[in-house]
Write a structure and sequence with these properties.
With 367 residues, this protein is an alpha/beta fold. It contains eleven helices and twelve strands. The longest helix is centred in the N-terminal third of the chain and has 19 residues, at 30-48. It is globular and about 55 Å long. Bound molecules: 3-isopropylmalic acid (IPM) and manganese (II) ion.
Length: 367
């Protein structure tokens, strides 16, 4: 998808061969799943003959507990010199919810202006879905979630806090620029994906009459430039309904940050759960970050039972964005073989294999 990779960052160290990947394994089971992702990356790079280098960053709950640091400015500067960021999971049971999510995950998304959150919802062979009578041919769509605006902008205020008359205001902030670049990405992506060539705008025009008016107008204007793409519109509540009842209707869905957050958890469930769901935080002109959608799963930490496939698939998405499309396809092919022929389940502890064995299986089944 990305064409001009090189010369982006003036801080890129000289003499580095291949891609430069920053690894933030993070908290809980993050390091275990990222280890398997890196194992697969190494194997596939050997087969495809591309080079890369990784540098690890210890951002996360442990570092925060020790030093109160989230992402120091010096690290942000360094990260700017990489081609991509590979992230495990952020979230620590001893740290108040919100601190690490906002201070690390959202911080990186905003700082690097990763304005797209790309989340494929694809049911792989052999994977159990809670949707009765649905098979891989019915569940294969992609959600393009706006990733830097909307309710996530953090705008709002309290009035008369801690009184009986308290008011809490949370603003959804949508700019024409932000909406348009997201919508354009979605059209281009639908075109490149070349499946059903259908793009659905998921919103709430009937109630949220400012934000979704802007989205709707922008979507329809940009649509005029893509005559070969079929477009339609669904309210977010109806989208949830169709995702369960008729997921085969979707090819690509574009939506705002909050709705995208919600519908992609539903999407993750119909594709077999958090063990398989991967996503990319993408800045097509900058530095993108790839992560399994699931959290740090503290209770499974260190047990070698968590499913690493989501992290492995996130690694595959990273390869695609680095321009290694063949390697990405090989990795996905292997994952599909492993789900189709080997694993009993995708759930932690029930796969029939350990975390590291699943990584080995993906390596062994590479074409
Ligand atoms: C996600 C997560 C994050 C989000 C949280 C952890 C801030 O739920 O990546 O979907 O809301 O975007
Ligand atoms: Mn979420």
């Amino acid at each position: 998808m990305r064409s001009e990779r090189s010369e982006r960052s003036p801080e890129r160290p000289k003499g580095v061969e291949g891609y430069k990947i920053a690894v933030i394994a993070g908290d809980g089971t993050g390091p275990e799943v990222i280890r398997e992702g890196l194992k697969c990356l190494k194997a596939v790079s050997g087969k495809c003959g591309f080079k890369y280098e990784t540098v690890e960053y210890d951002l996360g709950g442990e570092r925060y507990k020790k030093t109160k640091e989230l992402v120091p400015d010096s690290v942000l500067k360094e990260l700017a010199g990489f081609d991509a960021i590979y992230l495990g999971a952020i979230g620590h049971p001893d740290v108040k919810p919100g601190i690490l999510e906002q201070g690390i995950l959202l911080k990186l998304r905003f700082y690097f202006d990763q304005y797209i959150n790309l989340r494929p919802v694809k049911l792989y062979p052999g994977v159990w879905t809670p949707l009765k009578d649905k098979a891989p041919e019915h569940i294969d769509f992609v959600v393009v979630r706006e990733n830097t605006e909307g309710l996530y902008k953090g705008l709002g205020e309290f009035k008369d806090k801690n009184t009986k008359n308290e008011i809490a205001i949370q603003i959804s902030h949508n700019t024409r620029k932000g909406v348009e670049r997201c919508v354009r990405f979605a059209f281009e992506y639908t075109k490149k994906r070349n499946k059903r060539k259908a793009l659905t705008l998921c919103g709430k025009t009937n109630v949220l009459t400012y934000a979704w008016d802007l989205w709707d107008r922008t979507f329809n204007e940009v649509a005029k430039e893509y005559k070969d793409i079929k477009t339609d519109y669904a309210h977010v509540d109806a989208t949830c309904m169709w995702m369960v009842k008729n997921p085969e209707w979707f090819d690509v869905i574009v939506t705002d940050n909050m709705f995208g957050d919600i519908i992609t958890d539903l999407g993750a469930m119909i594709q077999g759960g958090m063990g398989i769901a991967a996503g990319g935080n993408i800045n097509p002109e900058g530095i993108s970050m790839f992560e399994p959608i699931g959290g740090s799963a503290p209770k499974y930490t260190g047990k070698n039972v968590i499913n690493p496939l989501a992290a492995i698939c996130a690694g595959g998405m990273m390869l695609e964005y680095l321009g290694e499309e063949k390697a990405a396809r090989m990795l996905e092919e292997s994952v599909m073989k492993v789900t189709g022929e080997k694993l009993k389940s995708l759930s932690a502890g029930k796969m029939g294999y350990s975390t590291s064995e699943v990584g080995d299986l993906v390596v062994q089944n590479l074409p």
